[in-house]
From TrEMBL:
Zn(2+) 1 binds at residues 58, 60, 150, 303. It comes from Fructilactobacillus sanfranciscensis. It catalyses: (S)-dihydroorotate + H2O = N-carbamoyl-L-aspartate + H(+). The active site is at residue 303. It comes from the Bacteria. PANTHER family: ALLANTOINASE. Its EC number is 3.5.2.3. This is Dihydroorotase. Zn(2+) 2 binds at residues 150, 177, 230. Residues 47-233 form the Dihydroorotase catalytic domain. NCBIfam families: PRK09357.1-2, pyrC_multi. GO terms for biological process: 'de novo' UMP biosynthetic process; purine nucleobase catabolic process. Gene3D superfamilies: Metal-dependent hydrolases (3.20.20.140), Urease, subunit C, domain 1 (2.30.40.10).
Length: 423
């Protein structure tokens, strides 16, 4: 099949150039001006921008076990709507894929049911909470792209050390949710003025930073590729910065919500603001952006965590932790950071596409160039709209960004050479 995209602004080598793009049997075969060819379909894209497919190394698709919250189908459709062509799914599902057989089954289901590429993590321990380690070499052979107990910090240093020693031999990343449970203090939001004002129990920020400090030292000794999930504290940024300077093989991600929201925005008992790590102080938001800009933080990942209305229908205290993000991340960050001049579009694409692909050694080349498989999205960056739950493909609409005005609307996503989403 031949598809001709006409008059699009194409993001190539950091520049926007108006070009026509010819896709033949899923591959980009021509990028020129004024192409006039006999094709199966012509897509007029004047005033629209073709951007590389986005890559998210941190999503929760809830499948199997909690398909009332999300499925591979709905999660991947939501991802395509958000401009993503590859995501990496966390293993906190039921049953936990803790054997090669279970992991292979998940990977096969991801490939069969997903409209985009859905890569799969293996857990670090058998049920993500105990100390028994999985067979890391066998899980790598089964197709794991990394190892993570996301949602649970590994509580004992010995377990983490043993895991790092074994995972280092695979060459795959260990993606860590850093959180000392004893220091969480049963909190439901960040300990501070907002928690005091709302009468909520606060989680100590040292729950994150103390376990991070422990893990960075263990990573220094073992040489493992240690990846820090959803960094939320200024102190964490500083610890990672120092570790990188010391030669530790550490990378880090930050979520859109930790960049854009802080706990002072929680004005009432609104469970849409309940997430883990919790929203921190405004000064932490500033430090997180600085960490991206100076290379301490390597990428942006959504931690897409859908829930049902019932999960989020209770009070802040009793509702579930988590926020969706896969459909809103690019429009929000483009509007709040690029349009305001805080970052460039090139930087955003680097953090949301190129860096995660390179760092996690994913077999993707989302650059828009001749010979590549078509993995990109066509955006209307001039669009002005409100985030609307009725437009979401995810089963979850648990986000405080509903009603927020944003620029950037995705009109079409190509993945693996095929149209995965069309508005």
């Amino acid at each position: 099949m031949k598809i001709l995209i006409k008059n699009a602004d194409i993001f190539q080598s950091g520049k926007l150039l108006q070009r026509d793009v010819l896709i033949e049997d899923g591959k980009i075969v021509k990028i020129e001006t004024d192409l006039d060819l006999n094709v199966d379909r012509v897509i007029e894209a004047k005033g629209k921008t073709i951007l590389p497919g986005l890559v998210d190394v941190h999503v929760h698709f809830r499948d199997p076990g909690q398909t009332q919250k999300e499925t591979i189908e709905t999660g991947s459709e939501a991802s395509a709507h958000g401009g993503y062509t590859t995501v990496c799914a966390m293993p906190n599902v039921m049953p936990v894929p803790n054997t090669p057989q279970l992991l292979k089954k998940m990977i096969a289901d991801n490939q069969k049911k997903g409209v985009i590429k859905v890569e799969q993590y293996s857990p670090v321990t058998y049920d993500e909470k105990t100390e028994q380690l999985v067979d890391f070499a066998a899980m790598q052979a089964a197709g794991a792209i990394g190892f993570s107990n996301d949602g649970f910090g590994i509580q004992t240093a010995k377990t983490m050390y043993d895991a790092m020693v074994a995972i280092e031999k695979t060459g795959l990343p260990l993606a860590a949710h850093v959180e000392d449970h004893a220091l969480m203090n049963g909190g439901v939001m960040n300990a501070g003025r907002a928690a005091d004002r709302l009468g909520m129990k606060g989680s100590l920020d040292v729950a994150e930073t103390s376990q991070l400090a422990r893990d960075l030292e263990l990573a220094r000794v073992t040489g493992v590729h240690y990846h820090v999930c959803h960094v939320s504290k200024a102190r964490s940024v500083e610890l990672i910065r120092r570790a990188k300077a010391d030669g530790v093989n550490v990378t880090a991600e930050v979520s859109p919500h930790h960049l854009l929201l802080d706990d002072s925005m929680i004005k009432a008992d609104n469970p849409m603001f309940k997430m883990n790590p919790p929203l921190r102080d405004k000064s932490d938001c500033v430090a997180l952006l600085e960490g991206l800009l100076d290379g301490t933080i390597d990428m942006i990942a959504t931690d897409h965590a859908p829930h049902t209305d019932e999960d989020k229908g209770e009070s802040f205290i009793h509702s579930a932790f988590g926020i969706t993000g896969i459909e809103t991340s690019f429009p929000l960050l483009y509007t709040k950071l690029v349009k305001t001049g805080k970052i460039t579009l090139m930087q955003l694409i680097k953090w949301m596409s190129y860096n995660p692909t390179k760092i996690f050694k994913l077999n993707d080349d989302n650059q828009i160039k001749i010979g590549n498989i078509a993995n990109f999205a066509i955006w209307d960056l001039a669009s002005l709209r409100q985030i609307n739950e009725a437009e979401m493909r995810s089963k979850g609409n648990n986000t405080p960004f509903i009603g927020t005005k944003v620029n950037a609307e995705n009109e079409m996503t190509f993945c693996k050479g095929k149209i995965a989403f069309e508005a």
